[in-house]
Target: RING-type domain-containing protein
Amino acid sequence: MHFGVAVLTGKPSRESALRIPPCRPQKLNRVMQTLEEENKRVLKKQRHCVAQIDRKLDELLTQVENTKKKLEERQQELCRKKNRHLATSSAGEGEEGGPDSSNNEETQASAPTASGGDEAPSDNAEAPCKNEDAEAKDDDVAVEEQDNETEFIVRDFIRRYSKQIDKNLCTDITKVCRMNELDQKLVCRLVAEYLYQDGQIEAADAMCKEAGLDLPPTFRDCFIELHQILKAIKERDMQPALDWARKHRKELGRLDIDIEFELIRLKYVDILQSSPDMMDAVNFANKELPYFHQTHAEEVGVLMSCVLYKGKLEESPYKKLFNDTRWDEIHDAVIRACCCLRRVPYRSYLETCLSAGVSALPAMRKLMSVMDSKLADWDSMEELPVEIPIAKELRFHNVFSCPVSKEESTPENPPILLKCGHVICHSCVKRFSYNMTRRFKCPTCPVEQTESETRQLFF
Model:
């Protein structure tokens, strides 16, 4: 739960902000405290469940990796045995069909018939061949046993962990999701915008044509230009990005975006690290950095100090400038700058919806199981009874909490702006004014007003 005080004018004291009217029953306080404690308990339990699921998944992934390594080692061992077996069999065939065997046949044909005492050496020559055949058969049996053992290990692993995977991973989300009818045109628009932002321009154009969408041409042009710049950055070419930043220097300056300086800094660092001559970086700095002396004097000084550590930059105090992630960082910075300039979202709406839904899915599934056990109706609820944990970057709506009743605003109980500038909920205004029949005093300051002098706030 998020509690906050919305104050537009004045600085209320802590005592006056928390003043409770004498007509308020004490029972309501106890109920509110009980609800707050119950909410904290449920949130704590949810976090504990999420942590347990994360640990289980980590253990499963570790065991999967270990089993994979064992299987790879066994597979390599089997391959080595098969190769040795093939080499042995090919060597035996070569000895049988080689030139030595033909010479032996010719000598046997030309020689007179030997006596019974001369047949013993031939029997001795056939004995090694029989031994080799027996060894080859034994190797085949061993390879087959190894294959059976590997198959048994895989089946045993699947049998042991498939139940745990099904238990910890939500495979069926139909119960958690509400089957609301979606506007097909809006869905197609979400997909088309995602394709544009992902750089799939031709697919997005085809989507717009098939669905009859009318996206603004500036939206398409923005991402065509952006992905041309990003393609050049992937090839370590920053000139298109620099040209774009210089072209929109005034607009970016009004938005307080320093993408031009970040690009020049990266190019200077790249020249200093890759060029064998230190003067190449110095000449580039003398040409490009004077424009930023007034706005980035300290950072320019740091860049010029890097020249002193040429040859040992990774051991210098400025080694953070030369890390391997600098190209990824400038990639994201260019995307943010271009989207901010064109007033389009940095992340597509489709990606945002998916991320928020995935992060909320474990808590929603747990809530659904609890509600099923209590026979509660899921579809009839307008508001969830507990808070769903979602990352901060996925929160886009302000929440007003009344400083008097500690309740969050709802459509039925909206925030009301008083004459003095303080804000309380509508139920408190109704209670203080005795059902809108008389003047009342602000609970934070001594200003008096009537209900007609108040206004509803919309966030």
Observations:
- The chain is about 60% helix and 5% strand.
- The longest strand covers residues 415-417.
- The two ends are 18 Å apart (CA to CA).
